[in-house]
Design a protein that fits this description.
Distance between the termini: 44 Å
Largest sheet: 5 strands, mixed, barrel
Oligomer: single chain
Number of domains: 4
Number of helices: 8
Low-confidence stretches: 1-23, 315-334
Length: 334
């Protein structure tokens, strides 16, 4: 569907709406992905075959009661996500019903109260000297208000047992404190990446995997941590997107520092351009640079004119730049 875009005359181009909009007809689907606050997503079964719309509020079961979230994927889309992002895992929870106006009001009430509860929790944390390193990030009510979850980050493990008891007495409910890594904190807060698009972790990524500097070295990127790091202060998740392609492509090229006996004399490989399928060499006698295509390199290899180094060298990095150990450690925290 296309509708004219309102606003100034310079924006007269038609606006294209995605078919996955809340105005689409209800669709009965056995598998549904539901998104909760903080971009937390969960696969749920729909045993009653309720006809649902995208972004519709639904009530679902949870290990500790009933929670509410918005439908984020249905039908074939949910099945693709199950295979790609959930590794084929089966849904552990089920959809109970579509939200009524009263359910919607309680959901909105929970969201309104969470900011005030977070501010109160931060104030209470100041009275615990052992929690000086704790940074409370977000608060989330379960829909039935039987549980309040507070998310925080800290550079190390924190003993918050006394703090939890104080919170439970203050808020008159079960309180859970959950320590999350920096990537999860950024996913909950959201934002725009250097590419100008919304953060990958806040849109489609389900599992946030640690990224090492080795991924950047394999792709022969400049070891500039300011450019390689995302909003979370860790290496960007997108460094993993093309990593498998580079690993496979490198198998078809000699390693750096290999000696190629060209017609102009022996030359050392100093640079691999995998996208252009070219190799840059430096003549050992004159220091001049040569460029060979992958086809030419394969022809020289077939003639036995390539001499592999005894210890292949990794992609070169300036010695003044920090190594991987200087990055904050990636931790998998529950």
């Amino acid at each position: 569907l296309q509708t004219p875009r309102s606003g100034c005359s310079s924006c007269a181009a038609p606006e294209t709406h995605s078919p996955d909009t809340p105005t689409a007809e209800p669709e009965p689907s056995e598998l549904v992905e539901v998104e909760f606050k903080g971009r937390r997503r969960l696969l749920c079964s729909n045993p009653a075959r309720l006809p649902l719309r995208l972004r519709e509020l639904v009530l679902v079961t949870s290990p500790h009661g009933i929670d509410a979230g918005h439908v984020s994927a249905l039908g074939a889309t949910a099945q693709r996500k199950q295979a790609l992002y959930y590794n084929g895992a089966q849904p552990q929870e089920r959809i109970l019903r579509r939200a009524t106006p009263q359910d919607q009001q309680q959901y909105e009430r929970n969201r309104r109260e969470e900011l005030e509860l977070l501010l109160q929790a931060r104030q209470l944390a100041k009275s615990f000297p052992t929690l000086a390193s704790m940074k409370l990030t977000d608060a989330e009510w379960q829909w039935d208000r039987r549980r309040l979850t507070l998310y925080f980050t800290a550079p190390q493990r924190v003993d918050f047992r006394g703090f939890v008891r104080t919170l439970a007495q203050r808020f008159k409910t079960r309180v859970e404190l959950r320590q999350i890594p920096a990537r999860e904190e950024t996913r909950r807060l959201g934002g725009l990446g250097p590419c100008g698009r919304e953060l990958c972790c806040a849109t489609f990524l389900v599992q946030l995997k640690p990224v090492s500097l080795q991924a950047a070295r394999i792709q022969q990127l400049s070891m500039n941590l300011l450019r390689l790091s995302g909003l979370c202060g860790r290496l960007k998740c997108c460094l993993l997107y093309e990593l498998d392609f580079y690993r496979e492509a490198l198998q078809h090229y000699p390693p750096l520092n290999a000696i190629v006996h060209t017609d102009a004399g022996p030359a050392k490989i100093v640079k691999l351009d995998l996208l252009q399928e070219r190799v840059q060499l430096q003549l050992q006698e004159t220091g001049a640079l040569l460029t060979l295509t992958h086809a030419q390199l394969q022809e020289l290899r077939a003639q036995g004119r390539i001499e592999l180094p005894s210890t292949p060298a990794p992609p070169e990095t300036p010695p003044s730049e920090p190594e991987e150990e200087s990055l904050p450690p990636e931790e998998e925290l529950e």
